[in-house]
Amino acid sequence: MNRTLQPALAILILCGSCNIVAEVVPYIAYRSQGFNAARELVGWQTQINKSCMDSVYGSFSVTPEYTRSFHAHSIAECLFSDVLTTNNSTANGNCKNTCNQSLIKIQGTKVSDRDPKALMAENFYLPTDFNSEVRFAPHIENFLVDLNLYVGLDNFIEGLYCRIHSPICYTRWNLNFCENIISQGTNNYDVGYFDDHFTPTNIEDPQVHGLERNFLLNSFEEYVCAREHIKNVPTITYQGLERARMSSKALTKTRLAEITAAIGWNFWTGDGYHVGLNIRGAAPSGNRPKGTYLFEPIVGNGHHWELGAGLTAHWRWWSNEEQDREFATYVDANITTLFSSRQERTFDLCGKPLSRYMLALKYTKDVKNLLAVDGAVNLPPSAQFANEFVPVANVTTIPVDVSVPLHIDAVLKCTYIHCNWQFDLGYNFWYRACENICHRFDCCSHNNFNENTYALKGDAFVYGFAGVNQGGALTAYQPGIPLSASEHKATIFSGTNNYPANTETWSANNGIDLPHLAWSNNFPTAHDYQLYTHTIGAFADPAHTIALATPVNTSYIQPLYITECDLNTDGAKNQGLSNKLFAHVSYLWQDCRRLTPYIGVGGEVEFGLGDKACACSSCAPNNVQNNVSQSDACHSKDDSCCKTCSLSQWGFWIKGGVSFN
Question: What is the reported pTM?
């Protein structure tokens, strides 16, 4: 092939793979447990923002609360999107309450009547005939104790006040992961598919195979939860999944959510009304995302500093003559921005949801014994498989800087007071704008992403075996020669060699990137030998049942690497929006002179908004192939879509405290 045409062909291959797809969110930035304007306002509203005070006064409250999420399928849609299938299986195994669970399928390439939405089992070191169903019913529970202090400073400036609060939170995140194995599979891997040897040594044996079944894993759970991988294969490394893991058990975290403080001035006050503004900020005390787990427990706002302003107001629009009964309306609205926070995030590849769970191949520039046919000349490619299989998540988990330009928490409530009793009913609006995720090469000083090192495996055969026809029979030599094959267009669902449509040519690697026939030099003698793999299905020579009879292709000039531009940072962005209804009833001992105790109970129901599907085009040219600068190439990606993922939850609290004067 003319080398001047190869970059253009590479671009066509790349952009052809960037389809309009429904995005998934590797990390969901849910509402912080510490931001709840409804919980903060109820119960003590008559004890704060007072008028005509000539001394320091204030109130201290303690609010234990329990919350639990519902609409588990909405969480699952954000995490898995189009991968979810209808839960219509009758073989539930150990999975209980399946009517409330979302379902994904794990199936090998050679499963009959394979579901096109099933995740390809070979990505998880499972056999080609493995078949299982994995169910999820994710939910989040929080138990927290919110500590609030308000101090009026009217002795300095009339209407001046400060307030501070910080919740201590125990959070429990549970995917409710459950796998029902339909078939563990019995297939060995085909010759050259996963290792550099074959058994038996008689290459004309129709039962010849590569890596044996007993080396492989037995469940998806072993791979994605327990970090298991193929072991005891000399000279070849099979990495386990270290990032974006799933947990079969609940994960917990206990921290302060954040420490929020405000200083404000009620500039318009009087008997039965007030309007004031405040400057508020939050110091991070919760934990940062680490990318270790898909559904990792987070306390707080993701470890952001926040700064903004608040509005507080109320109006008493009716009271009786004795002034022991009244109706009033209260408004609190807080608007902040979340400053940049260093986090570790795991990213999918552009246009490939859940590609973080695919397998990548590591390459070396030290090419040995590998040639590719380029016209009438055999030339070495620029890279070669380095005998190391790597989960994509291990590569695409990198530190990033994340900020949020706008965060709103606003509450409107009505209060009825009857003597010492107070009854609150209100509405809370919460909004978190789309995240800004900093590209490492744009504005960050550290970058641990290794360019020109990894490429997708898909269903590519990664070893070829030098062979020569001797007296009508093929002689092949072990160990196999690592190829330079890659499949940039592969997805979590399938590779590009197109099995079973191309069964007999599947092992020829016709579907890999830039395929060229593979040869070897200086092995076993000073001659060039063509490289072969095992013919799948009908044999090329039925009389001899020759097993290794398919010439295999390799990628030339080089594999199409995973570059930093391929990381789908745009598709990983998410925003949040929810609507909440709440109620509270409390009792105040107003006859006390200097101290006024109060206690009450309340509850809330929050309805989070979520996108069922969010189609984005995330095609970015590969800078390695077209010599476009990395920054320009990545900036060409589409930033028009930001998936909305918000938690629906209910909660109840007990709020008690004491006011002082």
Answer: 0.89
